[in-house]
């Protein structure tokens, strides 16, 4: 691969990476500030609301966050804004349906600080109406940074200032909610006003529902994946409330690590697909072979970093041991593989159904194990349950990719003979 081919990918990686770095740094710094000013139990309930938002956010985004970048990249530029507006209308209907249910679930699970958990859920549910996936597919990292990442990050930063000044956690969450809403509005206005042909809003409920039909594989993938990734926090909060801050701290590092992998996946999504199928297949195979090696290294680093980093960020109030950090490292490595193989490899070779099947498999294995582990062994068993389910997903996806190319090679030999 020549320099002219590599440099654009590196520039895009750097540009998308800037959004990730800003979000991660502010998110990490928020942990000790919230714990110091609101307490580790309140921080745990904020995280509970956030996990519920991530779970119900799958209903709101309805798969566009999963397959949207590839869909946008694969269609003519002049059709992209209307496609986004259509998705936004459909997602607004879904938000109105999902938000009350999410609030009720959080209210029932949270034993204390119920209003805090509900407000956190609403604040973190709003970004699922945003345009981050559209900017990724449109190859606009600058717009992603200015109109999505920056408002959300400023919401966290201003919220932390408000928390420090007032000591009121509701100020912190309310500022985040307002800025997250501003990001959604700003992104939508930008896409609408910067288009050659101004896209229209079609609020017809039937057509809005009809648009969801084409997202069935994507939403199954996103929903089942989110179900067994975010269910552990809800289960721990309900069954093992005393261990909630400990588990949330370990999980938070896994999610920040996954955020760091995001730019790599975004670049791969835009660079693997190619009209030249020979070149595309070669890239898919290379990515599938290298992903487990890179993920294994990331898993080891994660497992070693969580214990001392958790103590550092919580000022010694929350210390995660290796009994929890090791399975969380395994989770991170397995999810990193499935992110690359599932989103960047399976979609280009037409295996969207296998992507959905892999997440269903993970949920079928993970959810019973999570519940059993929480009720019998404890919080470390919950983490190992997630690890087993994520490993099953990664292995299944790799098997599908390599089986696909083995079948293609046999077909080519049969034709040649």
SSE blueprint:
Blueprint: H1 3-38, H2 40-61, H3 64-73, H4 80-109, H5 114-125, H6 132-137, H7 141-166, H8 169-193, H9 205-210, H10 216-239, H11 244-272, H12 277-313, H13 322-346, H14 352-376, H15 379-416
Helix pairs in contact: 1-2, 1-7, 1-11, 2-4, 2-5, 2-10, 2-11, 3-10, 4-5, 5-8, 7-8, 10-14, 10-15, 11-12, 11-13, 12-13, 12-15, 13-15, 14-15
Report on this model:
With 417 residues, the protein is an all-alpha fold. It folds into 2 domains: 12-211, no CATH class; 215-417, no CATH class. It is 84% helix and 0% strand. The protein is built from 15 helices and no strands. The two termini are 32 Å apart. The mean pLDDT is 84.
* Helix content class: over 70%
Number of helices: 15
> If you average the pLDDT, what whole number results?
84
* Alpha-beta content class: mainly alpha
Distance between the termini: 32 Å
Give a nutshell description of this structure.
The protein has 417 residues and is mostly helical.
Q: Which properties best describe this structure?
A:
2 domains, single chain, globular, mainly alpha, about 425 residues
